[in-house]
């Protein structure tokens, strides 16, 4: 029992592929249903009348609409042929996740427990392979934006759980409840990390404006992500994460970057300057940030929204690090004050 592949199309926006295939219900139960548990479920299993009716129809012999399974892999130019791509899918299903069809697979699982279920019936599936996490998330949001059960921020939260295991670097994430139980001075709150990722993807520090109702804020964020340059960018979020890890080698920098507003601003600013920052020594960054903080301390806090201004100016500072890091305190104050 295996996958039958029919068509392969290149998605030039996400630098990946869409592969159309089919298999049998038994294969889906063995290989696709377990993928649901890989994430902090995108959508909880529902037991509505609609899905009860679909369960009945599956047993009676209906053909379900295709489900969509996502994978991340960047194929070298020499390996961009159908056989290599199909082989990759077959060998890496356990590393995939369900992009669309969670409820249908849950319904299929329940139907399989009923008398009369045919394990050999066909189920159709589309595989989406993106070259990076960022591009896959971009595709998810373009597909799902407008569906209330799955906001852009929720999708990013889900992917943070699924993809960012930080193999090979020292960065650690702790959930909010874990932070309360254990002292974790070298760890990031997961909520802060997700906010930084949202800011990076949208290219904006304005990601949680309390003056905008939550539903519209989600739509605004999704719109910014869709309009961003993710598909054409040479920088990935893991490049930013590696810089954060680099900062963590310095006690002062680690404490600075773990402040939520600093982290959010840095994620936006480093999106356009990551390549240059990689070559800067940690002590040089520490010195320039000390200069930035000296200039920032001269801002009249009674006249501004301090958190918002800090995010914006940190982003501005790192977007233009090559120039601004060379200024003295008062020259820098003059430049950043013009941004308020």
List keywords for this structure.
340 residues; five-stranded mixed sheet; 2 domains; alpha/beta; two-stranded parallel sheet; 51% helix
Tally of domains: 2
The percent of residues in helical segments reads 40-55%
Q: Outline the biggest β-sheet.
A: 5 strands, mixed
Radius of gyration (CA) equals: 23 Å
DSSP, total strands: 7
Number of helices: 17
Measured by DSSP, the beta-strand proportion falls in 5-15%
> In terms of structural class, how would the helical and strand content be classed?
alpha/beta
The succession of helices and strands, N to C, reads EEHHEHEHEHHEHEHHHHHHHHHH
> Can you tell me the residue ranges where pLDDT is under 50 for at least 5 consecutive residues?
40-44, 176-185
Strand order of the largest sheet: 1-2-5-3-4
- In round numbers, the mean pLDDT is 83
Could you give the distance between the termini? 63 Å
Shape: elongated
Question: What is this structure's SSE topology?
Answer:
Blueprint: E1 4-11, E2 16-24, H1 25-31, H2 49-60, E3 67-72, H3 82-91, E4 97-100, H4 102-111, E5 122-130, H5 133-144, H6 152-163, E6 172-174, H7 176-181, E7 187-189, H8 190-202, H9 214-227, H10 237-247, H11 251-257, H12 260-270, H13 274-278, H14 282-296, H15 306-319, H16 321-324, H17 329-337
Parallel strand pairs: 3-5, 6-7
Antiparallel strand pairs: 1-2, 2-5, 3-4
Helix pairs in contact: 2-4, 5-6, 6-8, 8-12, 12-15, 14-17
């Amino acid at each position: 029992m295996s996958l039958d592949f029919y068509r392969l199309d290149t998605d030039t926006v996400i630098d990946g592929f869409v592969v159309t295939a089919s298999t049998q219900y038994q294969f889906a139960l063995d290989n696709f249903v377990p993928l649901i548990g890989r994430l902090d479920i995108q959508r909880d299993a529902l037991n509505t009348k609609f899905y009860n009716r679909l369960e009945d129809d599956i047993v009676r012999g209906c053909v379900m609409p295709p489900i969509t399974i996502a994978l991340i892999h960047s194929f070298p130019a020499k390996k961009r042929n159908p056989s290599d791509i199909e082989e990759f899918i077959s060998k890496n299903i356990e590393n995939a996740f369900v992009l669309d069809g969670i409820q249908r697979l849950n319904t299929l699982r329940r139907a399989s427990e009923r008398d009369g279920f045919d394990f050999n019936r066909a189920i159709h599936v589309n595989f989406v392979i993106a070259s990076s996490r960022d591009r896959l998330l971009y595709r998810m949001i373009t597909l799902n934006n407008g569906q209330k059960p799955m906001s852009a921020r929720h999708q990013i939260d889900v992917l943070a759980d699924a993809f960012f295991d930080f193999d090979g670097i020292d960065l650690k994430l702790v959930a909010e409840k874990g932070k309360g139980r254990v002292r974790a001075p070298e760890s990031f709150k997961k909520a802060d990390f997700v906010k930084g990722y949202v800011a990076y993807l949208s290219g904006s520090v304005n990601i949680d404006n309390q003056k905008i109702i939550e539903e519209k804020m989600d739509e605004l964020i999704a719109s910014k992500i869709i309009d961003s340059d993710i598909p054409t960018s040479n920088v990935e979020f893991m490049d930013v994460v590696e810089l954060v890890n680099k900062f963590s080698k310095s006690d002062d920098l680690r404490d600075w970057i773990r402040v939520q507003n600093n982290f959010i601003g840095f994620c936006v600013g480093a999106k356009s300057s990551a390549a240059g920052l990689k070559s800067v020594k940690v002590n040089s960054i520490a010195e320039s940030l000390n200069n930035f903080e000296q200039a920032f301390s001269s801002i009249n806090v009674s006249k501004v929204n301090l958190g918002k201004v800090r995010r914006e100016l940190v982003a501005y500072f790192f977007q233009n690090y090559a120039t601004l890091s060379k200024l003295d305190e008062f020259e820098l104050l003059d430049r950043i004050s013009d941004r308020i």
